[in-house]
Amino acid sequence: MNDKRYEHGMEKLMEYTVKDRENASTHLKIADDLQDIAPDVAKYIIEFAYGNIYTRDGLSNKQRALVTISSLVTQGTEPQLELHLNTGLTAGLTQKEIVEAITQLIPYTGFPRVLNALKVAKKVFSIRAGEETA
Amino acid sequence: MNDKRYEHGMEKLMEYTVKDRENASTHLKIADDLQDIAPDVAKYIIEFAYGNIYTRDGLSNKQRALVTISSLVTQGTEPQLELHLNTGLTAGLTQKEIVEAITQLIPYTGFPRVLNALKVAKKVFSIRAGEETA
Amino acid sequence: MNDKRYEHGMEKLMEYTVKDRENASTHLKIADDLQDIAPDVAKYIIEFAYGNIYTRDGLSNKQRALVTISSLVTQGTEPQLELHLNTGLTAGLTQKEIVEAITQLIPYTGFPRVLNALKVAKKVFSIRAGEETA
Amino acid sequence: MNDKRYEHGMEKLMEYTVKDRENASTHLKIADDLQDIAPDVAKYIIEFAYGNIYTRDGLSNKQRALVTISSLVTQGTEPQLELHLNTGLTAGLTQKEIVEAITQLIPYTGFPRVLNALKVAKKVFSIRAGEETA
Amino acid sequence: MNDKRYEHGMEKLMEYTVKDRENASTHLKIADDLQDIAPDVAKYIIEFAYGNIYTRDGLSNKQRALVTISSLVTQGTEPQLELHLNTGLTAGLTQKEIVEAITQLIPYTGFPRVLNALKVAKKVFSIRAGEETA
Amino acid sequence: MNDKRYEHGMEKLMEYTVKDRENASTHLKIADDLQDIAPDVAKYIIEFAYGNIYTRDGLSNKQRALVTISSLVTQGTEPQLELHLNTGLTAGLTQKEIVEAITQLIPYTGFPRVLNALKVAKKVFSIRAGEETA
């Protein structure tokens, strides 16, 4: 089979996780957790989400991370928000940009989603700070 | 009273609507519609959303528009999406960036929200094309 | 069969719709619309929602309407919001209380749901004003 | 390129729409509407949704339609619900099964989503009745 | 009082929980937890959800479980999803059917809800495997 | 600067938390948690939510709490629900009124959101009972 999507998806995923041990291992852990119950879902994340969507032109990695984070804050799906705050930082978003993006959502989602997102951000920033000083 | 938030909010709002007759008139129409039922809500949009939040440092107008649009696509609140696709274009987002941002949301919201958002985008792009050639 | 819930539900529903032709006819229209596709759903609305829930002690009709309206604004289900703004007014909520309740939700749902709800409220208030002067 | 997903996706889509002119033309209309704004999204629907997901083993077409409809009722995304009530009927769901599935959701989504879905179902059933007698 | 709904509801509930100690005890635990704060809510679950809705004709127990699970995955209400994955298995859904139903939702809810649901499914399958080998 | 909103917001917040050590300390803890990541968000809660919105006329503190709780139950944002069940009790809502408000939402949100909310209510009531007997 000549479908290169899986390969391109893995390359793109690496751009979001390289130099980022915590995050790379989280992605591997997700794939691992899915292995015995739904291995194809892990494959679709690489092939479709990273291989088809993230590899498109027209937005930078940073912009795609900003879009993704804004959606996850709005949905309140916190495990995925934690993961994508990490991929966003690796893609080049600063902590300040992330806090500003979450703050920007107050008028559109109200305070509850924003407060829950800031709590996740605080945890992510603190883990990465610990890694950097380690 | 010395609170300059309303004034600063109006200035910021102008950055998102100037050179954009359709959009400016939509904002005025919202304020107008609220005038006899809830005038303070129109005031809070200017003072709080534009005066407090949009005027903050740390993200560009384009980035704030991207965050806002991503949240509105996720929520499926179409009248506000229509308005903020317009403010986003005025703030400097290209049509291609907007379509890419909506496409980026497929893995996070599924196709239904994305298809509904693209329909709104198509309408907005077409109205603005009509204005430009007028 | 001795189940009085349907009867009690109808009595309770009358408290929310009597003296309110627009609203009573809306309820009848809902039942009518359901008649050929899902008549039992209309029955469950009377028996369960009105017969079991609305007839409970511990909250006034006005308070139950306030709770219901707040949930419908949050969900963005506008046809039902329109109906329950009418039942709320008949139960004794003033237009001012309804506008205040919707405004109170800005910090909890953000502006989009609130603006959409105010538009529905404006329509309901205007129809009832037309009826009163008719 | 040897990726057969698009082809398999189209074949699977035909199973949900053949003998169903209204529905097939709706799918074509969606692809058509997307053509000038986001043609790749139409491609992903065929390749990923129909080519990757719907072609999987383990559930019948009828069961996949039931799952899809239940999610769309819960989300309240009505244009997609209308489409998938049609694909569900073509896949073999009866009108009675569809009404029962929507009714089954009352305890899980409450009445508002259910009433809005029944209204869409009524419209779909009526259009198809008109076609059959035409 | 001659209302048999509570009795019929309990019988129907037994069909979803018999031969399933974990699940039956979960249902009893829910009723127990509600006993001192809102005992009527436990009664409504039996009378209305099981007595009125689940006992209806037109869908099999397995189909009703599939509809319920699809809605709970979409909502992201995980404690209830855990419960209804159990009732679904007792009603005759296989683990493969459940995983397929969740996978079918990727195009309609996106990956986050699906990944969270698969995690709950993995937990439920593992607890039941433990019981069977116990 | 002459903006009194922060001051008025703090006064209003006190009405919802005075005589309520648990709750006051929760509010302080939120402000504290935000201090190093997003101190302005804590300021907006006081200035905008409490200073602008809660201080408005037209609804009593009890009514505002009822509206807020109904929205949070509907959204399923449990940390904020826990906080506002406490502010609601301090504002004068009885435990019975709170349980009734949650029960009233069954027909509008379905059982899952209601069961999750009752679990939070049970926890809040039990903590406050412990404090009173302490």
Major pleated sheet of chain A: none
Strand content range of chain A? under 5%
Secondary-structure class of chain A:
mainly alpha
The quaternary organization reads as: homohexamer
Would you identify the CATH architecture of chain A? Up-down Bundle
Shape of chain A: globular
Radius of gyration of chain A (Å): 15 Å
Order of secondary-structure elements of chain A: HHHHHHHH
The separation of the N and C termini of chain A measures: 44 Å
What is the name of the CATH topology of chain A? AhpD-like
Helical content of chain A (DSSP H or I, runs of 4+):
over 70%
Query: According to CATH, what is the class of chain A?
Result: Mainly Alpha
Low-confidence stretches of chain A: none
User: Got a strand count of chain A?
Assistant: 0
The CATH superfamily of chain A bears the name: AhpD-like
Overall description:
Six copies of one chain form a homohexamer. With 134 residues, chain A is mostly helical. Chain A has eight helices and no strands. The first copy, chain A, has helices at residues 5-17, 21-35, 39-54, 61-75, 78-90, 95-104, 106-109, 111-133. Chain A starts with a helix and ends with a helix. The mean pLDDT of chain A is 90. Chains D and E meet through helix 3, helix 4, helix 6 and helix 7 of D and helix 3, helix 4, helix 6 and helix 7 of E. Chains A, B, C, D, E, F: It comes from [Bacillus] enclensis. Chains A, B, C, D, E, F: InterPro entries: 4CMD/NDH-1_regulator (IPR052512), AhpD-like (IPR029032), CMD-like (IPR003779). Chains A, B, C, D, E, F: GO terms for molecular function: peroxiredoxin activity. Chains A, B, C, D, E, F: This is 4-carboxymuconolactone decarboxylase.
